[in-house]
Amino acid sequence: MQHAVGSPLPPPHQPGHGPAAGWPPAAHHPGPHHPGAHQGPAPVPPPPPAPGYPGPPPAPAPHPAAPRHVPVPPAPDTTGHLPLPPGGPVAASGAPPAAPAAPDPGTATLAVLLIGPAGAGKTSVAKYWADHRRVPTAHISLDDVREWVRSGFADPQSGWNDNSEAQYRLARRTCGFAARNFLANGISCILDDAVFPDRPVVGLGGWKRHVGPGLLPVVLLPGLDVVLERNAERTGNRRLTDEEVARIHGRMAGWYGSGLPIIDNSQLGVPETARVLDDVLARSLASPPKW
Question: In this predicted model, what pLDDT tens digit does every residue of 34-48 receive, in sequence order?
């Protein structure tokens, strides 16, 4: 059947037959010639130009294909050399990582609880230690906070009762809140209190809840004769009877064997005790006590 306009349709491509005349040949993939392999049809040359018309411009010469650079894998290193990443050295293979250095107790932000009986020198040592640190440090005294109550003050010298117990709990909680506020603003603090080892829930455990798990407790426990002598120099409601001082000192002896660091400052002045306190805190920072 002939179309009214145009040339006849090309015949369908048959396997084994080349394309019809005038149709572009299939792309020929370059590659090595293997005898016997099927070769594509030869390209059909263009028809000569008609007389009086210039021929088509010559086709540009094909550019040679750029050589492909295939990355060569590096040879395996057999010298034992360890390449260092940027930013610092690394440990040799199989070596344990170096332990981080413990913070300097003179510059670290700390929360210290100084424990001891009446007359142990807690307040004097805490003030001196706070005054001579190289970083901002606050001294929070439980007795000072407890004495904020002017009317209705529950004095234990008048008898230990529920009212005095409640005021002590309130004072400890207030000191804990103050310590956390100081620490949150980068200011160290040292607190002092007569914490008894036989009352862990309301004593040391209460301080840990109020201040935080990073609290560093240290026990200041001189001999009984030293405590009695220092207590005798006190005045006002902070001076206790010798019987009360002896009873408190006996209960404080329970800290021995508890795992907390204990400083016997019987033969030490305040500056010497403060220096020993720094040494104890350095060990506590390197290996925190279990409590």
Answer: 444 445 555 555 555
Domains by residue range for the chain, with CATH:
111-285 (3.40.50.300)
Spatial distance between the Cα atoms of 172 and 177, rounded to a whole number of angstroms: 9
pLDDT of residue 81: 41
Residues β-bridged to residue 137: 188
CA distance 248 to 222: 12
Q: Taking 90 as the threshold, does the pLDDT of residue 198 lie above it?
A: no
Q: Is 254 exposed, middle or buried (0-12, 13-18, 19+ CB in 10 A)?
A: exposed
CA-to-CA distance for 163 and 156, rounded, in angstroms? 9
- 172/194 Cα distance (integer angstroms): 11
Furthest-apart CA atoms within the chain: distance in Å: 139
Cβ–Cβ < 8 Å for 282, 102: yes
